[in-house]
């Protein structure tokens, strides 16, 4: 029941109008039954962790199999359009780290070491969906696909369950996260939600990928925004990045640090022109989204409330 509390908060008086069904991403039969009778499907579930798993299939299998279960179920039930939450992780991993501009036509290279299990899971899952559509191009039913590719998602949070972006903001607030000199494409969760809705409503969105990145701040920019809000209450928020030599040393025995090393000091950029022109998204400020997120994390008990001290 704890997982349903955010839905109750989000939908308020309209919660009773929701029809909830049980489904398992790794159980195709349950997915087929859940989607039965639907005109549109939005598939958003896929595991995301900051720490690298010992076995990459912990992320790849549910991402790929879950996406395919949703796609196949949608196709069998003659759903008109399925919207799939992919990620910039499926776009931005290139063998040349100096390639820092990415478009909806960019794809991550799953064959290189820089492609983490999460990057690989999102890339393979999205490609499987497009490949399925291509394989059924000559069938009577023409199912439309739209993928939404968000960056690091920030903004107000309603749940108490553990999630990766919540952990990052929590670590910033507690001073437990050392900052590399690295930029990161970010987006407000409210923009992501609106994009999914527009992907259903806008006919011109058919069979396209949409990058959801409002800004590309440096890690330290997010900390600076949080310190401006909470500096006295959470005094451990970082004020500077770690030295490059420290990252190099840690990278010798830490896979996460090794994956970050090639991106040190690189400013990434993303082509979101289709997102604004086709879906009509006007991106919110991601630094404010970070602050808004911190407020809700404190209110839900995700972060200890130092205001009471």
Keywords, separated by commas or semicolons:
309 residues, alpha/beta, Rossmann fold, four-stranded parallel sheet, two-stranded parallel ribbon, 40% helix, 10% strand
Description:
The chain has eleven helices and eight strands. With 309 residues, it is an alpha/beta fold. The chain has a single domain, classed as Rossmann fold, CATH 3.40.50. It has a four-stranded parallel beta sheet, with helices on both faces. The model has no long low-confidence stretch (mean pLDDT 90).
Summarize the structure.
The protein contains eleven helices and eight strands.
Summarize the helices and strands and which ones pair or pack.
Blueprint: H1 5-11, H2 28-35, E1 40-43, H3 57-76, E2 81-85, E3 101-102, H4 117-135, E4 144-150, E5 152-154, H5 164-174, E6 186-188, H6 189-201, E7 209-212, H7 219-230, H8 244-251, H9 255-260, E8 269-270, H10 273-277, H11 286-299
Parallel strand pairs: 1-2, 2-4, 3-8, 4-7, 5-6
Helix pairs in contact: 2-3, 3-4, 5-11, 7-11
Give the % helix: 25-40%
Counting copies of identical and different chains, the oligomeric state is single chain
Rg over CA atoms, rounded to whole Å, is 20 Å
CATH topology group: Rossmann fold
Q: CATH superfamily, please?
A: NAD(P)-binding Rossmann-like Domain
């Amino acid at each position: 029941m704890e997982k349903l509390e955010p839905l109750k908060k989000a939908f308020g008086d309209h919660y009773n109008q929701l029809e909830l069904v049980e489904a398992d991403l790794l159980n195709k039969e349950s997915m087929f039954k859940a989607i039965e009778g639907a005109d549109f499907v939005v598939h958003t579930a896929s595991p995301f962790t900051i720490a690298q798993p010992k076995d990459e299939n912990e992320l790849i299998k549910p991402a790929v199999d879950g996406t395919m279960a949703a796609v196949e179920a949608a196709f069998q039930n003659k759903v008109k359009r399925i919207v799939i939450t992919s990620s910039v992780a499926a776009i931005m991993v290139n063998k040349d780290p100096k390639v820092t501009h990415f478009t909806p036509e960019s794809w991550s290279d799953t064959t290189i070491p820089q492609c983490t299990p999460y990057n690989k899971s999102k890339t393979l899952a999205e490609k499987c969906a497009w490949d399925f559509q291509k394989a059924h191009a000559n069938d009577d039913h023409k199912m439309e696909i739209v993928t939404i590719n968000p960056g690091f998602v920030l903004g107000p949070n309603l749940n108490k369950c553990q999630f990766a972006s919540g952990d990052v903001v929590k670590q910033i607030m507690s001073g437990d996260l050392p900052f590399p000199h690295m930029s990161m494409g970010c987006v407000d969760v409210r923009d992501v939600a609106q994009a999914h809705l527009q992907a259903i409503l806008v006919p011109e969105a058919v069979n396209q990928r949409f990058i959801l990145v409002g800004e590309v701040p440096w890690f330290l920019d997010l900390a600076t925004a949080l310190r401006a809000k909470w500096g006295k209450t959470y005094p451990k928020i970082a004020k500077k990045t770690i030295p490059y030599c420290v990252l190099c040393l840690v990278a010798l025995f830490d896979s996460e640090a090794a994956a970050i090393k090639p991106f040190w000091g690189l400013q990434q950029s993303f082509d979101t022109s289709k997102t604004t022109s086709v879906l009509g998204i006007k991106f919110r400020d991601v630094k404010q989204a970070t602050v808004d997120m911190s407020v809700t994390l404190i209110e839900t008990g995700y972060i200890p409330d130092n205001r009471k001290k």
